[in-house]
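Hey,
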Amino acid sequence: MTSMRQATHDRTRQSAVAAPQVVAIQTAFPPYQYRQEEILAALARTTLRESETGALVLRKIKTSSGVETRSLSLPLEKLVDLARREDFTEQNRVWLDTALDLGERALIGALRTAGVQPEEVDAVISTTVTGLAVPSLEARLAHRVGFRPDVKRIPLFGSGCAGGAAGLARLHDYLLAHPGQVAVLLAVELCTLAYQLKDGSVANIVAGSLFGDGAAAVVAVGAHRDGGHAGPELVDTHSLLLPGTEDVLGWDIGSHGFRILLSPEVPTLTEKHLPTAVQSLLARHALTPHQIASWIIHGGGPKVFTAVQQALDLQPGALDLTRRSVAERGNLSSVSVLDILHAAMKTPPPANAPGLVAAMGPGFAIELVLLRW
């Protein structure tokens, strides 16, 4: 009990101390961009050819997904052919080649925007859930980008859609402990490469109708580092892991590759548990949801948008940046909240206004980061 009270006390003190700061974000996307209608037509010709249920789901998605365009790791015809061959070795090879290309572009762009040289980076965090690589992505990119040999590496795998928020939280933790240093976060998700062409389940059809590919890199500095930047401070974090929900969201991994687990319970769990997590974090800083000036939320899909809006009693336009990201990119898993935060940094709210990053992922997990603009 004493240790719990001390932890709460330490968390409360954080709002009074100088916090780590995001100074730059850069996104990168494959060159193969398609309209949603083209992708859904390809699904109808392949996976859904003999599935009445799938065809019904697809008709509903056409009118409600909110997705207009998506970037794919391969031209659509080659992507379908790769999925048809069911060769996980080849799928993962394409994933690795593409992930390294996009990751390098995102990292170099973010460092250039921040005015930070690669050799100044002290720690790098990477997150992905759509492919496997040992050594991990940040290890393979370290020398290509120009990081020092002694750079600290923190690879994350398995956080899924919550990975972007979790990665920001780990940036916060590291730079709070090392306030004179520079750290970067790299998120790469190539969701379309995991699509299962012969899986006619509703979960697979929904995933094939929503997810896109992309990468994002974040550069952040500790409070003792000379700044002068306009990005938000990372003030505090909060995590919530729900018991008995391991099968709600995630992968069934086997010789077939990554088969999606996506339960209809996700919106219900979000609506029930997100307010508790948000209130726990905000209460430590004497804030309420109505005082949050910017909501950086990975909504997943239309049903989760509604659940978040209702659960937090948000104003009608609060999720506009989220909806725009989904419309232009689709669901990017861990990359989504970073894409949304990147957009928010272009037109930030007034100085000292609070913001909140929120994302839900496998576990079932909720990851939150409190911002101060």
